[in-house]
What does this fold into?
Amino acid sequence: MSLDMNSSEFLYLISSRRNETLFPEAESVCLGRNLLQHTGRTRCAVLRQEDRELCVAGLCVDSLGELAREEIPAALLQAGKDGFAGVLAFEPRLAGRYVILYTKGEDSWLLNDATGAMQVFYHTGGEPCAAAAEGLVASALSLPYDEKMLEIRKGSDPFQPMPYDATCVKDVRCLLPGHHLCLNTGEVTRFQFFPEGADNTEKVLSETARQIDNIILEYAKVHPLLCPITGGWDSRTNLSFLLKNGLVPETYTFDHPEFTSETEDLTIPDKMCAALGISHTVIPDVPEDRAAFDEIAAVMGPHISGRTVRLARTYRSVYDSEHILLTGDTVAQIGKHVLGNRLSWRAATARFLTCKIHNARALAVAETKKQLKEYARTGCREGAFDLFSLESRCGRWASQISTIYAMHGIQALNIYNCRSILTAWMSLPVEDRCEKCVHRYYLQRNAPQLLEYPFNSRNWQDAMKDKAFTFWLATYGKYWLMKLRGR
It folds into this structure.
């Protein structure tokens, strides 16, 4: 497929002047001193009242099931009648993939969804500019690459995220989940903090399950839902919410070149879906296409993953843009506490966390030290594993994948992408989450028949995760292996 910029999803540029080169057919809205341009397929609602203006770009739903999608912008504007603090207080109930731009008088603020799935890259050099991809900011302001950051990029495969809020472009940073940006000053402020422990696990899971029901039903009103399925726990938990809510699921599995006829990520979904009468499609990977990569790189910048571009093209080889691809990255990252496993929060050192983004460069470790200092400064140090998972694994790694998919016109939406849900999961005991309490509860509640089918077999890597010390040892073993290989 050839890239049609205006057919891309969740793509926007905020600047002081119109850019005809990057967005030749884009729609635009003016809020205060800012002009927001967006592709034709990027939903955008704008409201104005007295000295306040508000724009919601992307897809935003109410996890409480009280507001229709069309009513949310007005509710946000009303919540912000006395200032931006009201918007921040209202937002945690919202879910989806969106950016909110709020203006009051001469001041403008920007925040995005709970995992930063609709990414915000912003200029720190004085001229206000923000966009869904760092390459858009670079092109809009003619910014050069930062040699120091390029050294960090060489430390890992482009499939992996950059550390903290770093990008390869000079004076451009990424807005991390749980933070908001003042466009006037460039100041970034944390507004999501690590929660206190929950008193009742079952109550937390019961309440969040009802929220997820509401989210998935709202998504289903937009387009038919597609559910990728493997032999693991995460995708099956996603599927269970479809079944629970009476939605006819359509599932698929990628067939990668390294897979065989015995690969459980193929055989388990195939047998389970056949037994349950669920539609299931196996999609072989399409070959790499350099021209297709170059089209995406021309917009996003060259430091992107060719593997992700190929997977997006593989998806589009079967499905059109009138579907919603359901994802659930957070149910592993936060729901299972996979990053820190059973380790104490004290084990969340800069070197350990940087290893988790597969980068052993000293400059990368230095960026992660900044991240940990920010946790300490804001009273969140004990939540380092969860916050790093949210910011770097979800907000940078998963979101950069989703942005490349969006460039191909793919609407990828996370069914758990709601700040109040993720905060509630973080309040649960780590040991319980490691034992899959979130997955087990949802599966038993939604579709207990899914527990009757096997999951992927355990291997030696799974065994290493059973004990805190062996997990810690394996992580550092990976770090020193990367160092030896010159990463």
Observations:
- The domain at 5-190 is CATH 3.60.20.10 (Glutamine Phosphoribosylpyrophosphate, subunit 1, domain 1).
